[in-house]
Specification:
mainly alpha, Arc Repressor Mutant, subunit A, 3-stranded antiparallel beta sheet, two-stranded antiparallel sheet, elongated
């Protein structure tokens, strides 16, 4: 079997951890390569999927590098909002420790970023974020989002 985290027969200490409901698919490497030889379109589809993912990740890195943490956090919260005006309370999709890892910062830095967002009336209580004015949050985000290709 093909092990995503195994290269050249050597075990790699990296691992994957799911933070959402996940469906895993196990595909026999030998069978996959045989199918790819018989149907080259499969290879092209896989390459296209990887290219799309690399483009998305590249754009995300550009966005992250061009924004400070409170700005990235504000954009993350804004994307959770379901209304365009007024107030809203959103539930964070996962623990703040996981969020800190996603943003590439310490838990303490994330907490400081949440504190800074109080300046635009965004407050937190455990896993809930109270956006007192979604339009203010949107304007803050729109000022900070860099134009990407």
């Amino acid at each position: 079997m093909f092990n995503l985290f195994q290269h050249d027969g050597l075990d790699n200490p990296d691992y994957a951890e799911s933070i959402d409901d996940t469906c895993l698919l196990r595909i026999n490497k030998k069978h996959l390569f045989e199918c790819m030889r018989k149907t080259p379109e499969i290879s092209f589809s896989i390459l296209n999927a990887f290219a799309r993912q690399m483009t998305r990740l590249g754009n995300e890195v550009l966005r992250m590098k061009s924004m400070i943490l409170p700005q990235r956090l504000a954009l993350f919260i804004f994307r959770l909002c379901t209304v365009e005006t007024g107030a809203e309370i959103v539930c964070l999709p996962y623990e703040k420790t996981i969020m800190a890892n996603q943003f590439g910062v310490t838990r303490e830095s994330l907490s400081r970023a949440f504190q800074l967002l109080k300046g635009i009336n965004v407050t937190t209580h455990h896993d809930h974020v109270h956006v007192h004015d979604v339009e203010v949050l949107k304007r803050y985000c729109m000022l900070q989002i860099p134009k990407l290709r």
